[in-house]
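Illustration: TECTA protein.
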Amino acid sequence: SPESLLYPYGLEERDSKTPKQDDGTSKKVTLAVPFTFYGREHRSLYVNNNGVISFGTRVNQYTPEPFPLADGRPFVAPFWADVNNILGGEVFYRQVTEPNLLGRVTEDINSYFPTISYQATWAFVATWDHVAYYGSKSQKVRVQRWVG
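Result:
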């Protein structure tokens, strides 16, 4: 099944959840280890309901703009969509240091990038699980994940 391709997630994995809110976002997440993104070290991030993991600032609005953004906000957009989880679904997230899961992350990354040597010592997992889109009237659902 498609879910078997995903890393484990949910409350049983001790994930946190973003609030049930249109254009909502997590509290500031302090990282256990600094994360370097485009040459800049970050020590915290936000998980935004609209499918964006941002550094330094929340990204509350859904802004379908081409990259790079004119204002230079640093973020990763694994699932950039107009999500309204009040209408359904959850956004889960956690930091990972568990050796078995880090082994799987290492194996996955090395299979996709065989010319580099990579060993995961920390990962951040965010999952947009069966979230509804703004204005949704039916049971349309999506699942997405990002690991970094």
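Reading the tokens back as a structure: Helices lie at 99-112.
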